[in-house]
Amino acid sequence: MSSSSIQMLISMILYIAVVLFIGVYFAKRANANSENYYIGGRSLGPWVAAFSAEASDMSGWLLMGLPGLAYWTGLADAFWTALGLLIGTYINWLFVAKRLRRYSHVANNSITIPDFFSNRFHEKKKVIMMISSLLILIFFCVYASSCFVTCGKLFSAMFGFNYHSMMIVGVILVLTYTFIGGFLAESASDFMQAIVMVFALVVILVFGTINAGGLGAVFENLNSIPGFLEFFSLGNPALDETGHQIVENGMPLFSEAAPYSALSALSMLAWGLGYFGVPQVLLRFMAIRKADELTKSRRIGTIWVLISLATSVTIGLIGRTLYPTALTTASESENIFSLLASSMLHPLFAGLVMAGIFAATISSSDSYLLIAASAVAKNIYQGIFKKDAKDRDVMRVSRVTLILIALFGAIIALDEESVIFTIVSFAWAGFGAAFGPLMLFSLFWKRTTRQGAIAGMVSGAAVVFIWNLFIKPLGGIFAIYELLPAFIISSLVIVIVSLLTPDVSDEIKEEFEKAKNFEC
Q: CA Rg, the chain, in Å?
């Protein structure tokens, strides 16, 4: 290993040490009881709530997947995705955050998303709790695998280490500090990691722009690629029989621009719908110490997302200008951020910036593991099978579950050709369609019934799988992001089934009204 690689590795090791210290620091407080472990005792301040929500949401795909998408096919897909996420972020904080914080307290002090759904409909037979917990388990295993892929790709590309070995090291690190510190450690480290992530993005944007001769030079260069800088066309890399982009005379070849319809743009804007159902963000709404502080959190979180998404997309475009032939597959293109950092910055500084990718990965994977573990231990084990289970038993089951989920995610991540963006998009669609419509109707439509909730949740998840596996491959108008049709169908099913089933009880109606202005 070269001296520059050693210096970068030292920077990253120091960063990892800080993360582990945070886990140890919060260990005693987090392990006091399950409420502290899973939701931090509802003690988050507005800055920590905002930064940890967005850092846990964005994950490694912000610094690898999204720049890679812009590098590979140009502006359209990346822009419409980023715009949808920005709009979704703002609307979620504006309409869902306060109402969920209040309603989760009124609904028997719910501390997990399955808890809330089950308590919202006053379940005796915990069907909603069981289904929502299983869906969390399924989709978070997929989500966690995307983070482990990021770890493997990062260290493999930066230092030449074996992909599988580095992926496993990432699994062990994330598992260790989530195991020790729980939600408080996760939120505190996410706050720090959100700062590191946006710092890393801005630094690479500035240095990349300078090295490319300014943004004007970048856009002038990319204008020569058919469809690359258009909102309704895609760059179309010309590939050889092995799936690598063809390079001739030191320049990458592109075929004629691929058409990009308004329906495709709407499909990518639909990424914003996912926010209404992703547990790692919704949990921060529930965990903030006061509902009124969510206004400040909304402003902080939205600004962070705007800066992060804009710089991420632009970095991908700059990377295509500076290193047009360095990355010749869709999977390799997700290394453009690390390539820019290692080539433009002093090794110690580059190591710190690389920690931004690792920060994004850790901040998401710890959330995924913890929420999935809570679904099994708190909601299935204690909520359904052993209602008299003591806190120490719940914590024990939770930690065993953490290990099992991490192992399963690692198995999925064994394929080093995995495209992070693709993995994340599927899991995001799953949560957005299964939980998003149900969350909105639970909070804002009193007439939503338990039967409607179950039918909507199951139909949303089912359509994501069916559309992705069987309908989307048909192409044409069917090649849209599965979240859009699944979200619509889930919403329709909730309304239709709720209207066809008996009205909810007066007790549920009174609780619904109480939650509107409950002081907490």
A: 22
Question: In a 3-state reduction of DSSP, which class is residue 236?
Answer: coil
Q: How far apart are CA 331 and CA 321, in angstroms?
A: 18
Q: Which of 183-197, 269-283, 450-464 has the lowest mean pLDDT?
A: 183-197
What DSSP assignment string belongs to 303-317? HHHHHHHHHHHHHHH
Give the chain's domains with CATH numbers: 3-227+268-416 (1.20.1730.10)
Identify the residue whose tokens are 């992530």.
197
pLDDT digits (tens, 9 = 90+) for 284-338: 899 888 889 999 999 999 999 999 999 999 999 999 999 999 999 998 998 899 8
What token pair was written down for 129? 């709790």
Does pTM surpass 0.85? yes
| Helix extents (H) in 323-448 | 336-344, 347-374, 391-412, 420-444
Instruction: State how far the alpha carbon of 228 is from the alpha carbons of 75, 84, 420, in Å.
Output: 6, 20, 21
Q: Which residues contact 405 (CB under 8 A, 6 or more apart)?
A: 137, 140, 141, 144, 369, 372, 373
Task: Extract the tokens encoding 180.
Answer: 């020790």
- What mean pLDDT is predicted for residues 490-504? 98
Q: Mapping DSSP to helix (H, G, I), strand (E, B) and coil, where does residue 242 land?
A: coil
Phi, psi of 414 (to 5 degrees): -60, -25
- Angle at CA of residue 515, ends 513 and 519, nearest 5°: 125
Place of tokens 């990349």: 208
Kindly report the backbone phi and psi dihedral angles of residue 518, in degrees, each rounded to the nearest multiple of 5, phi listed first.
-65, 130
Q: What's the pLDDT tens digit per position in 374-402?
A: 888 888 888 888 888 887 788 788 888 88
